[in-house]
TrEMBL record:
<keyword id="KW-0808">Transferase</keyword>
<dbReference type="InterPro" id="IPR015421">
    <property type="entry name" value="PyrdxlP-dep_Trfase_major"/>
</dbReference>
<dbReference type="GO" id="GO:0071266">
    <property type="term" value="P:'de novo' L-methionine biosynthetic process"/>
</dbReference>
<dbReference type="InterPro" id="IPR000277">
    <property type="entry name" value="Cys/Met-Metab_PyrdxlP-dep_enz"/>
</dbReference>
<comment type="similarity">
    <text>Belongs to the trans-sulfuration enzymes family. MetZ subfamily.</text>
</comment>
<comment type="subunit">
    <text>Homotetramer.</text>
</comment>
<dbReference type="GO" id="GO:0016765">
    <property type="term" value="F:transferase activity, transferring alkyl or aryl (other than methyl) groups"/>
</dbReference>
<keyword id="KW-0486">Methionine biosynthesis</keyword>
<keyword id="KW-0028">Amino-acid biosynthesis</keyword>
<dbReference type="GO" id="GO:0030170">
    <property type="term" value="F:pyridoxal phosphate binding"/>
</dbReference>
<dbReference type="GO" id="GO:0005737">
    <property type="term" value="C:cytoplasm"/>
</dbReference>
<dbReference type="Pfam" id="PF01053">
    <property type="entry name" value="Cys_Met_Meta_PP"/>
</dbReference>
<dbReference type="InterPro" id="IPR015424">
    <property type="entry name" value="PyrdxlP-dep_Trfase"/>
</dbReference>
<protein>
    <recommendedName>
        <fullName>O-succinylhomoserine sulfhydrylase</fullName>
        <ecNumber>2.5.1.-</ecNumber>
    </recommendedName>
</protein>
<dbReference type="GO" id="GO:0071268">
    <property type="term" value="P:homocysteine biosynthetic process"/>
</dbReference>
<keyword id="KW-0663">Pyridoxal phosphate</keyword>
<dbReference type="InterPro" id="IPR006234">
    <property type="entry name" value="O-succ-hSer_sulfhydrylase"/>
</dbReference>
């Protein structure tokens, strides 16, 4: 191993994303190795015993950890500025473990109501099955969080910006309230990306990602990440993951590890393109509403200025004519493809009311700000002028 510490805090994030966590084998490879192995052999029975007692550093079994997965975790921890990181098979495995690992029967969870559909399922339907109650609140309203707290409240959970309406919550204010009432705050940071928002620095206890999105960034593999203090991971996450088994494949971890090297380049360019697209959309009379964290018209623009260092790569907007208008618009696009994924190099667009948030009643969708005409656009790496031309042609047909 070289003496160069690629994860040193004195280095810029771009440098850490290329070097942090690298563990070279005896062959001295430049590119991080893919250790596609389920397990590891021991030199002696004594060494096996010591490994299981955590007295001998090293690996045992890929459900617990793996060298390629460990490189991803170390690189991501260095990037986020977290003491510890654990990778999971999917973003939902990360969300579920981060919450379920902390609670037991009788506990209570408070969460912002504007959530990705599966996140909302975990809080609203999965937890109550095991005797953990939950209350959903209007996220930007700090008084609503306070009013929802009970003596049993253990966890606060939020997404900011939220999926798909890009609602922004004052993370520092919610974190301060969590500390005051003895709860922890878990933040799903997918829409901000680790480049533009650092929830741990704002007082959150745990950050989760769907690495499927901008971290892969090229639509290939599923993955999730949980970042927190060493104590948080050891107390709430480590045993839960080890024993229940939502481990990431070493192959998927390798894809994510290599993708982190280019994340700042990709996300900055995608956000830049999203800004051009959002500014153009905002001038269109057939679009009554355009939501983008980089627009001055965003309802929480003051909070964005305080807690984010960049916007997002996503834009939400409403098309005139409800569902029919939205469908006509989507069907008129040629370059931008209809897909529920996001964060990809390819621009992708979706109608949340009939796809990602279809299972909610129209009333619940309305309370989440998801109207029949709402569209979510994930802006990719194409030239922004080509994207605007495609949107303009489709809009002309509405
Ligand atoms: C996609 C997504 C998830 C779930 O991630 P998977 O990798 O699909 O399991 C969780 N939260 C948000 C905000 C997402 O966009």
């Amino acid at each position: 191993m070289s003496a160069f510490d690629g994860g040193a805090a004195s280095l810029h994030p771009e440098t850490r994303l290329v070097h942090a966590g690298t563990m070279r084998s005896q062959f001295g490879e430049t590119s991080e190795a893919l250790f596609l192995t389920q397990g590891h052999v021991y030199d002696s029975a004594e060494q096996a015993e010591a490994r299981f007692l955590n007295k001998d550093p090293g690996f045992q079994y890929a459900r617990f950890s793996n060298p390629t997965v460990a490189m991803l975790e170390a690189r991501m921890a260095a990037f986020e500025g977290a003491e510890a990181c654990r990778a999971t098979a999917t973003g939902m495995a990360a969300v579920t473990a981060a919450i379920m690992g902390q609670v037991r029967q009788g506990d209570h969870v408070v969460a912002a109501q504007a959530l990705f559909g599966s996140c909302r399922y975990v809080v609203e339907e999965h937890l109550p099955r095991y005797g953990v109650t939950s209350t959903l609140v209007d996220g930007p309203d700090i008084d609503a969080w306070r009013a929802a707290v009970t003596p049993q409240t253990k966890v606060f959970f939020l997404e900011s910006p939220s999926n798909p309406t890009l609602e922004v919550i004052d993370i520092a204010a919610v974190a301060a309230l969590a500390k005051e009432v003895g709860a922890t705050l878990v933040v799903d940071n997918v829409f901000a990306t680790p480049l533009f928002q650092r929830p741990l620095q704002l007082g959150a206890d745990c950050v989760v990602y769907s690495a499927t999105k901008h971290i892969d960034g090229q639509g290939r593999c599923l993955g999730g990440l949980i970042l927190a203090s060493q104590a948080f991971i050891e107390t709430h996450v480590q045993t839960y993951l080890r024993q229940t088994g939502p481990a990431i494949s070493p192959f998927n971890a390798w894809v994510m590890l290599k993708a982190l090297e280019t994340l700042p380049l990709r996300v900055r360019q995608q956000a830049h393109n999203a800004g051009i697209v959002a500014n153009w959309l905002a001038t269109q009379p057939k679009l009554p509403k355009v939501i983008f964290p980089g627009l001055k018209s965003h309802p929480q623009a003051d909070i964005i200025a305080r807690q984010m260092t960049g916007p997002s790569t996503l834009v939400a907007f409403e098309v005139e004519g409800g569902k029919a208008g939205a469908f006509r618009f989507l069907n008129g696009l040629k370059l931008i493809r209809i897909s529920n994924n996001l964060g990809d190099a390819k621009s992708l667009i979706v109608h949340p009311a009939t796809t990602t948030h279809q299972r909610f009643s129209p009333e619940i969708r309305a309370s989440m700000g998801i109207s029949e005409g709402l569209i979510r656009l994930s802006v990719g790496l194409e030239h922004a002028d080509d994207l605007v031309a495609d949107l303009a042609a489709a809009l002309a047909g509405v």
